[in-house]
Amino acid sequence: MIDLHIHTTCSDGTYTPEEVVELAKEKELDVIAITDHDTIDGVERGALKAKELGIKFINGIELSTNYQGKEIHILGYFLNIEDEKLVNKLYELKNQRLTRTEKIIEKLREFRIEITKEEVMKEVKGDLISRTHIASVLFKKGYVNTRKAAFRRYLGDRGAAYVPRKNFTPMDAVKLLKENGALAFIAHPKLIPWGEKKTFELVDKLKEIGLDGLETYYPSFREIDKIYYKKMCEKRGMIVSGGSDFHGGNRNNITLGIANVKNEVYKKMKERLEEKKIDNEK
After folding, report:
1. Which residues are within 8 A (CB) of 130 and not within 5 positions of it... i.e. 6 or more apart?
2. Cα three-residue angle 247-101-188, rounded to 5 degrees
3. pTM of the predicted structure, to 2 decimals
4. Residue 279 confidence (pLDDT)
5. What is the pLDDT of residues 121-153, one digit of tens each?
6. Which of 171, 196, 197, 204 has its CB surrounded by the most CB atoms within 10 Å?
7. Would you kindly state where each structural domain of the chain is located, as residue ranges?
8. For 2-82+169-281, which CATH class?
């Protein structure tokens, strides 16, 4: 079994990269990918621990993008973490997150919700701030009953204090990953809050610039969903990925490996990577 969608303290998870790998060993997983939001800070640490424990490790990331008013997440696998263009873009995204946080805090004050940037920063275990950290402060100060409620009422894209991220589109993300030499997948496509027609219009547009596939195995997906997305990938000559979207204590009902992703998925991804290398050498 494998798990290719995992978050750590380097973004909005509660386990360190090393702890994630140790848990993967306990769960007897063969392959994992750390895919923190907009950062590769945990990749080297995870890779070192995985080598020590005999687990195959994929350098990964989950890039947060916006398109037509919706948040679209793009997963990248087999990253070259020395790529200067990637590193520079991630630094830019990190600074944008800080600015966005400040704007959200300002909007929350309109609803007589008083939290500070310093309070939010205390929730950050790594080097990247996120709305999950704001949700934690709102929960701890009693403004909401659950972190999920914080997103529903204030922080989600329909929330009262929602602030759109700066323009970084799925097309930008896929191009960045393709130039890096990585594989690119749309994360949890069923969770994009619009109809399937619009989702696959985007899929086809992204495929033209190098999208490799869709995250087909995901904890909340029914068996019929998995079959559907797999068929849609096959129809387009794309492949599938999958993972738990593990966040540790921030999502208590999600355990590592819960998506039941088979090793065959990893095999197909490696084959795809080799095909891309051959094409680039022609």
Report:
1. 11, 12, 37, 97
2. 40
3. 0.90
4. 61
5. 999 988 789 999 999 999 999 999 999 999 999
6. 171
7. 2-82+169-281, 91-155
8. alpha beta
